[in-house]
Amino acid sequence: MTSTTSTPRCALRTEGLTKDFRGFRAVSSVDLEVAEGTVHALVGPNGAGKTTLFNLLTGFLRPSSGRIRVFGDDVTGMAPERITRHGVARSFQITSLFENLTPREHVEIALQGLTNQGLRFWRSEKLLGRRREEVDRLLAEVGLTELADRPTGLMAYGQKRALELALVLAVEPKLLLLDEPTAGMGIEDVDRTIELVRRIAAGRTVVFVDHNMHVVGQLADRVTVLQQGAVLAEGPYDEVRADARVITAYLGEAHSA
Ligand SMILES: Nc1ncnc2c1ncn2[C@@H]1O[C@H](COP(=O)(O)OP(=O)(O)OP(=O)(O)O)[C@@H](O)[C@H]1O
């Protein structure tokens, strides 16, 4: 058998991406390249522009200038639902679950929202069976099979965050954007989440923001460091964390804290 090496496709590319808020430049001419199938971390001191960049990538904000391409398609200026159709899904920092509903019900609602089957769906036993399998598969993927039928309000924080990942996976994303997947977690949940993200990253491309450098080191193939809206450094974790400019940026933050 002959093996061929081909350059991986670019899942995400930004060119000169810029966002101004009434004269304040929150994201400044960012060129980002994320190869398909990789895990890419966005880090930087508070206020560096990470959330604004996520909002631009997912259509929650319109760029002031620059372009965004997803798997080669130009999605600049598209609304969030249109960007979703290009295979992009996003998780949020804040949990937004219904305490009285079970994980199964959450996933069912997420899946139903994706189709226009409405009531017709309930009349078809075959579709219903297929839907049940899909719900079970998503809950198993995030390790919530055992808790599928208990009220979400009774679950631990880390389990709620895992359920949110299942809801993100329901849209069958090719590019996942995770906003601080380990925020507010204790060490055990952080380690479980690292494993979970690693699992769900298989066959997908993941871009995530996290302040926890242990998480970044464990998960990221490449890291982009932002400072004052601009890219300060980019590369593999070990290179980036040894970069004198990055150390200075973080020391500066520690000083002002
Ligand atoms: N809607 C807005 N209007 C004006 N300024 C904004 C707006 N949103 C963000 N900013 C400013 O843009 C800068 C970048 O903010 P952003 O939230 O993107 O940073 P961040 O890197 O995500 O920070 P953190 O790590 O604290 O979440 C900050 O100075 C912030 O005050």
Question: What would you note in describing this structure?
Answer:
The chain has 257 residues and is of the alpha/beta class. It contains ten helices and ten strands. It has helices at 50-57, 80-84, 103-114, 118-123, 125-141, 157-169, 187-201, 213-219, 237-241, 244-256; strands at residues 10-21, 24-35, 39-43, 65-70, 73-74, 88-91, 175-179, 205-209, 222-227, 230-235. Strand 4 and strand 5 (73-74) form a beta hairpin. The radius of gyration is 19 Å and the shape is globular. The chain starts with 9 loop residues before the first strand and ends with a helix. 35% of the residues are buried. Bound molecules: adenosine-5'-triphosphate (ATP). The site of adenosine-5'-triphosphate (ATP) has 11 residues, from strand 2 and helix 1. Residues 12-253 form the ABC transporter domain.
Write the layout of secondary structure elements.
Elements lengths: L9 E12 L2 E12 L3 E5 L6 H8 L7 E6 L2 E2 L5 H5 L3 E4 L11 H12 L3 H6 L1 H17 L15 H13 L5 E5 L7 H15 L3 E5 L3 H7 L2 E6 L2 E6 L1 H5 L2 H13 L1
Parallel strand pairs: 3-8, 3-9, 6-7, 7-8
Antiparallel strand pairs: 1-2, 1-4, 4-5, 9-10
Helix pairs in contact: 3-5, 6-7
Adenosine-5'-triphosphate binds next to β2 and α1.
Total count of strands:
10
Q: In whole angstroms, how far apart are the ends?
A: 58 Å
Integer count of domains? 2
User: Measured on Cα atoms, how large is the radius of gyration?
Assistant: 19 Å
Poorly predicted residue ranges: none
Task: Write out the distinct hetero groups bound to the structure.
Answer: adenosine-5'-triphosphate
The side-by-side strand order for the widest beta sheet comes to 6-7-8-3-9-10
What is the oligomeric state here? single chain
Structural class of the helices, strands and pairings?
alpha/beta
Order of helices and strands: EEEHEEHEHHHHEHEHEEHH
- Broad CATH class of the largest domain: Alpha Beta
User: What is the architecture of the largest domain at the second tier of CATH?
Assistant: 3-Layer(aba) Sandwich
Strand content: 15-25%
How many helices in DSSP terms? Answer: 10
Any idea what the CATH superfamily of the largest domain is called?
Answer: P-loop containing nucleotide triphosphate hydrolases
InterPro entries: AAA+_ATPase, ABC_AA/LPS_Transport, ABC_transporter-like_ATP-bd, ABC_transporter-like_CS, BCA_ABC_TP_C, P-loop_NTPase
Protein name: ABC transporter ATP-binding protein
GO molecular function: ATP binding; ATP hydrolysis activity
Keywords: ATP-binding, Nucleotide-binding, Transport
